[in-house]
Design brief:
about 5% strand; mainly alpha; four-stranded antiparallel β-sheet; 2 domains; 4 strands
Length: about 230
């Protein structure tokens, strides 16, 4: 095989691979722009919704036995967790472990505290071994929260499902309202844009390499013509 023939074939190969690869990269880029974030199915969202209903039922039973007050508004001397409250930004209580333990008899299994769509959180084996790392849901505490107030009590930071203190539980896929701005920092959507940006960067680099391949192919073809 002569050098000219080799250059010609190599040039055709580079142009072909570069063109096909660039077409694939363009398709992936367009699809990523059109579907930027992962979307949970309706069944997945309803599983989380069911968890919130179970948790709220425990809160409701406690309130019925304590004059309409949730455990975080009842003194520890009376079986509550008032003195253990530690409210942070947006009213989210960082000591939610104690508040959930107060209704452990009604929750039965600590797995109810983990959203089925949360791949990063593992359920505790029992409530005695329950830690913040075993809980997906955000719990808000405060004197403004009772069984009659339409204020967010529980919020899933993974898929956005919400449970209000008055028992109104909403599925984000159907009727969930946008979360209050002071609760947005707790959401885990920060990883979505990161992954999206990383994917776009990889596709961009691949596209650049493919363009170089096409350019090299054209140069080789031109070199073949020149030598001929």
């Amino acid at each position: 095989m002569t050098q000219t023939s080799l250059l010609s074939r190599l040039g055709v190969f580079c142009i072909t691979v570069g063109t096909v690869g660039l077409a694939v990269a363009t398709f992936l880029w367009t699809d990523l722009r059109r579907h930027p974030d992962p979307v949970f199915s309706r069944d997945e969202l309803l599983s989380c919704y069911s968890n919130l209903r179970s948790i709220y039922f425990g809160f409701q039973l406690f309130a019925q036995a304590h004059g309409g007050r949730f455990q975080f508004n009842v003194s520890t001397n009376s079986g509550g967790t008032l003195e253990l409250c530690a409210r942070g930004s947006g009213g989210v209580d960082t000591n939610a472990v104690f508040h959930f333990r107060a209704i452990s008899n009604d929750l039965v299994l600590p797995g109810a505290l983990v959203c089925p769509n949360d791949a990063l959180t593992k359920a505790a084996v029992d409530f005695d071994h329950l830690h913040p790392s075993n809980i997906t849901y955000l719990l808000r505490s405060g004197t403004d929260l009772d069984h009659k107030s339409h204020v967010i009590l529980l919020l899933c930071p993974v898929d956005g499902n919400v449970a209000y203190a008055d028992g109104d539980i909403r599925c984000a896929a159907v009727e969930g309202p946008p979360p209050p701005t002071d609760l947005l920092p707790y959401f885990r959507h920060d990883k979505g844009p990161y992954r999206k940006g990383l994917a776009q960067a990889i596709i961009s680099c691949a596209a650049a390499c493919l363009l170089l391949a096409i350019g090299l192919g054209l140069i080789l073809k031109a070199g073949k013509s020149f030598t001929a």
